[in-house]
UniProtKB/TrEMBL annotation:
It is an enzyme of class 2 (transferase). This is Probable nicotinate-nucleotide adenylyltransferase. InterPro entries: Cyt_trans-like (IPR004821), NadD/NMNAT (IPR005248), Rossmann-like_a/b/a_fold (IPR014729). GO terms for biological process: NAD+ biosynthetic process. Residues 6-185 form the Cytidyltransferase-like domain. It holds the Pfam family CTP_transf_like. Keywords: ATP-binding, NAD, Nucleotide-binding, Nucleotidyltransferase, Pyridine nucleotide biosynthesis, Transferase. Pathway: Cofactor biosynthesis; NAD(+) biosynthesis; deamido-NAD(+) from nicotinate D-ribonucleotide: step 1/1. GO terms for molecular function: ATP binding; nicotinate-nucleotide adenylyltransferase activity.
Length: 218
């Protein structure tokens, strides 16, 4: 039975931390591919980033030569805000009731999981893989910690045994790269080279994104 793995984010811009983790997920979960799902940027993030179309173009350039990475742009095509529960419900309808569906989140995102819309529906629709990122530990009394304690598995093979409902805490090695750091660096006229794919950097400069100077040095 195949297993569908989605990895969502703002990807503003996509960087080698995201891409390396996606490859690592293929290895660790034993799947042939992972789908990157760019989301609408919530209004509170301000307007310093790239547009949805620009983020999608950068993602396409980033994965162009990598057969194991896919892009699922359904959240960008949907009018208005993206809610993960809606995305998972749509995917569940497409995959049928039995295929394991896996959603990947960082510990930073998982820590505020109980503030996501219809969060308690999510484990009914998918398994959750929580990837350890530096930052504060989960509040032991909070709902995310409770969910983890109740549904935790440590063997990735367990995810194939049911369509949804388990939480796997994955200790994958992470590159210390953030999109915020890249945006700041570009805005200051410093090079983000080797943090993002060269093709992504070339496009950022071509379009003058994040304050990049189109004529600047590579
Ligand atoms: P920002 O700095 O703008 O918040 P980000 O670099 O954290 O962006 P997002 O697009 O917000 O990236 O993150 C998408 C997903 O990727 C999240 O689940 C996040 O935990 C994860 N992620 C972010 N950076 C890394 C990294 N360096 N390695 C692995 N995963 C990462």
């Amino acid at each position: 039975m195949s297993m569908h793995v989605i990895y969502g984010g703002t990807f503003d811009p996509v960087h080698h931390g995201h891409l390396r983790l996606a490859i690592e997920l293929c290895d660790r979960l034993g799947v042939a591919n992972v789908s990157l799902v760019p989301c609408h940027i919530p209004p509170h993030r301000g307007d310093t980033g790239a547009s949805a179309g620009q983020r999608l173009t950068l993602l396409e350039l980033a994965i162009r030569d990598e057969a194991s990475l896919r892009i699922d742009d359904r959240e960008l095509r949907r009018a208005g805000a993206s809610y993960t529960a809606d995305t998972l419900r749509q995917l569940r309808a497409e995959l049928g009731p039995d295929e394991p569906l896996v959603m990947v989140v960082g510990t930073d995102a998982f820590a505020s999981f109980d503030r996501w819309r219809e969060w308690d529906m999510i484990p009914e629709l998918a398994h959750i893989v929580v990837v350890q990122r530096p930052g504060p530990a989960l509040d032991p009394d909070g709902q995310p910690a409770k969910l983890l304690a109740e549904r935790k598995v440590s063997d990735p093979a367990r995810l194939r045994e049911s369509p949804a409902g388990l939480v796997l805490a994955l200790d994958a090695p992470l590159l210390d790269i953030s999109a915020t750091g890249i945006r700041d660096r570009i805005a200051q006229g410093r090079s983000p080279r080797y943090l993002i794919p060269d093709g992504v950097w070339a496009e950022i400069r071509r379009q003058g994104l994040y304050g990049a100077c189109p004529d600047g040095n590579f």
